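User: Fold both of these, please.

Assistant: Here is the first one.
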Amino acid sequence: MSLTLELMNWVLDMVLQIIRELLGKVTMSSEPVNVNEFKALAERALPKMYFEFYAGGAEDEHTLKANEEAYQRITIRPRVLVDVSRIDMSTRMLGYSISSPIMVAPSGLHKLANPEGELATARAAAASNTIMILSFGSSYSVEEVAASCNAVRFFQLYRAERSGYKAIVLTVDCPRMGRREADIKNRMIVSKQKNVEGLVSTEVDADGGSNLEAYVNSTLDPSLSWKDVAWLKSITKLPILLKGIITHEDARIAVEVGAAGVIVSNHGGRQLDYSPATINVVEEVVHAVKGKIPVIVDGGVRRGTDVFKALALGAQAVLVGRPILYGLAAKGEHGVKQVIQMLKEELELAMALAGCTSLKDITRSHVRTERDRCQSML
């Protein structure tokens, strides 16, 4: 009897131990330890249509994948025996101090991820002491986001001036919306909601496509040209940054027309598929502007080491888009803060291990690209 009781107790202890281990694994897996893990959490939290709207790219999604993969082909050349007991990641962008060179990219319809949408994202950016660029496709108006917090905000239209925004970001690579096949298959529909200019229609396009695509195309001006940039500059006192520059030719023109900065971007691989990964062209753009204006790079940043590589190639800052949305979907405002904080902590560690105590210490000699390796074999 006592042997049977002991055996039952042993079995019970083993079962309880297994349960505790399983619960521990569930707890561990639900708490992300890096930015990439937020993607799976967001996929579980969102309807398929909304997740694929955020995660998807244009056509074959070659550029979407290339944006991340290109970073993986750049290696870091660390320097040793450097006193890295104190690391300073702070910088300035257009005269505004921020805690790190990690900024929030413009992306639309944050309310699909969380009811507080861009309001939560803006508060998280303010708490992280960084800059948020508000999209034209925001779920909340420029005034509502402006009233939500005291973050330094850049915006994509001149209406921002009277709402206290500090710069205008003009997207120049979007004369028409790219072909996003996941949205077409899902018949992507968004409910009516306030945005910067009115209401998003809920009517599905008659040809069976995405109503979002039809709406966005109806708001775009395919005749936008460099003359319009000059005109916009003439009617606002705010600095204008051009987002979507990926060639040295356009970078030089941007300087000539008086842009205050350029953002190297392919729209997150959502516009022209088979355009180059942004990190592969950032150096070309940096050389073209010759230090006259800041260069910011957007697309594919998932690790602090990615930020380090972008800075080493000459960028002054990076923009983070999808990870912000994934953090918002998974954990709301706190999730956005976590995403930014994880990248900051990883950047700080990368700087320490590479022998850099401040951003100005990060130089071209700290990285080796595929082109460098090819040239070394000649």
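And the second sequence with its predicted structure:
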Amino acid sequence: MGSIQPVTLLLPSQQSVTIRTATPDDAQAVLTYTQDVMDEAPYLLTTREEFTKTVEDQHQFLASYMEHPHQLALLAELDGHVVGFLNFQNGHRKRIAHQGEMSMSLLHEVRGQSLGRAMVEQLIQWAQGNPLLEKVTLDVFSDNQPAVALYERVGFIKEGIQRKAIKMEDGTYHSLIRMALFLDKE
């Protein structure tokens, strides 16, 4: 089971946020959060219209993460509400099981306050302690410079660019940057 000990931090706004493992009991809160973040975040791959998960679907999704030792789902709570979510899933085949991909989103109200960094650092700490994992990867919109800078600050490097990987409803394109962090296991 992938999990961390809860961590509470004080944001620059003087608000107290707790980062902890997401559990199936969080299904409704995570579902509400996901719908909210899709309404405000321009850098997500899934659109609000495409997101059709039910509470039961979300419950099963979170339960699957709890059952797998090489997967992790974290949430950030502020005043009892989910304001951030990060998930990591390693490769399902033997030859790629040593690496996995993370994704993260934050509500607008908490961006730029080091919460994203704290969540990624919790993932890295957990991954360092997992004997199977050697590499964490992610894809980020190339024009999402705050996110790119955050990932570089915690040690990710750019591995490549997928040009015109995203096509928006208005016909414009966005490139994705593939980034990776090689875990120091020494």
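The first helix runs from residue 27 to 40.
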